[in-house]
Amino acid sequence: MQNYSFFQKLLHKFFFNIKLINLLLYELEKFFFINKVYNYNNYKHIFITGLPRSGTTPLLNCIFKSEMFASLTYENMPYLFAPNISLAINVSENFEKKIRFHNDQIYFDLKSPEAFDQPFLNLTKNNLNEFSNYVNLILHSKKKERYLSKNNKNYIRISELKKIFPNAIFLIPIRYPINHSNSLFNQHKNFSSLQKKDKFILDYMNFLDHHEFGLNHKEWFKPIKYTNYNELNYWLEQWYLFYNNIYDKFINQKNVHILIYENLFDDFYRSKITNSLDLKNINLDLENKNINLKNLDIDNDLKLKSINLYNKFLNSNHFNTNYS
Fold it and tell me: How far apart are CA 253 and CA 287, in angstroms?
C-alpha cells in the first residue's frame, strides 16, 4: 500500500468499488484460459488459516520460498479475478522490498504472496466449484501444481474445501494466549491510527475483507463479557472463543494440523511439520517477545481459562515436542 503512486491508488479504488468489473474480468479469464488449465484438485495444496498474529504470514512466506507452490502475489493486484491476464497487463514497477505496516520486520515486494483470495470467495458467494476453477487458473498462471493460501477466514469452510480438494492440508497456528491477544490489541491500535491518517488503507483492507483489527474490525465470535475493542480483555476473550471452536471442530480431524507457535522455534518440531508437508526444512522469522504480565490489565479467570485451553492443545497436538 505504501508503495502505490496516486495513479495506482485510483486504479485500485476503481476495482475496489465496481464489482461488475471484477466479475467481467473473471469471465474473460475463463474464456481465454479455462480450457487450457489442468485440474489439480487432488494435489496436496496447503491452506493456512486462523487468527492473525499467530505466525500465519511467516508460515506463508517460508513455504512459498520452497518454489513448489503458486499463490496470489502483489503483482496480481488489483486484477485479482484474472490471475493470467493480470500478469500480462500489470504495469507496476518492481518496487524495492519494504516493511509492511504491521511494523513486525516482515518485508514484501511484488513477488510476495498475500491473502488475496477472499474477495473472489465473497463475490462468488462462496461458490467452491468456481473457486476450484480459480485455483486451477492461478496454478496455470504460475506454472505450479500445488496451491498455497493464507486466508484467515478459511477456518469457516474447511469441511467444504476438503470436498473440493480432498488431499489438501490445513494449518492452524495457535500462540500462547496472553502474548497473542496483546499482539492483536497492539495491531488494532496501530491500524486504527494508520487508517485515520490515510483512508486508502481502510478502503484497501475492506476490499480484501480484512477486518482483523483497525477501524473496520469485526469480531470473530459474539462477545460474552467484553465488547470494547480498546481493551485487552476483549482480544483475550476472542482468542478463547476462537480456539475453543477450533478445538471442538478440528483437534482430531484428518489433514488439519494445529501448529504451536512457540514450538516453531525448535528445529525438530519444524522438521516434523515439513516432512508431513513434503517440504524441505523451513526457517521462520517469528516474533519471540516475553510479555510482562504484571503490566497488563487482564481478567484473571479468563486468563486461566485461556491458558488451560492452550495446554489442551499442547497435550493433544501430534507435532508437540514438549519444548513449550
Answer: 29
Single pTM value for the model: 0.89
Terminal Cα distance for the chain, rounded: 36
Summarised one tens digit per residue, pLDDT across range 169-192 is 999 999 999 999 999 999 999 999
| 39-78 residues labelled b (16+ CB within 10 A) or e (exposed) | ebbebbbbbbbbbbbbbbbbbbbbbbebebbbbbbbbbbb
Q: What does the radius of gyration of the chain's CA atoms come to, in whole angstroms? A: 20
Q: Tell which residue, 215, 254, 230, 224, has the closest CA to residue 242.
A: 224
Q: Please say whether the beta carbons of 265 and 176 come within 8 A.
A: no
- Secondary structure class of 62 (helix, strand, coil): helix
- Give the C-alpha separation, 207 to 189, whole Å: 20
Instruction: For residue 159, give the amino acid letter.
Output: S
* Share above pLDDT 70 across residues of the chain, in percent, rounded to a whole number: 85
- Yes or no: say if 272 and 225 are a contact pair by the CB < 8 Å rule: no
Residue 8, burial from CB neighbour count under 10 angstroms (0-12, 13-18, 19+): middle
Helix ranges, the chain (H): 6-17, 19-33, 56-64, 83-89, 118-123, 128-142, 158-164, 177-197, 199-207, 232-250, 267-276, 300-316
Q: At what angle do helices 177-197 and 232-250 cross, to 10 degrees?
A: 120
CA-closest candidate to residue 218, choices 236, 243, 238, 204: 238
Count how many residues are written for the chain.
324
d(CA 259, CA 277): 13
32-52 pLDDT per residue, tens: 999 999 999 999 999 999 999
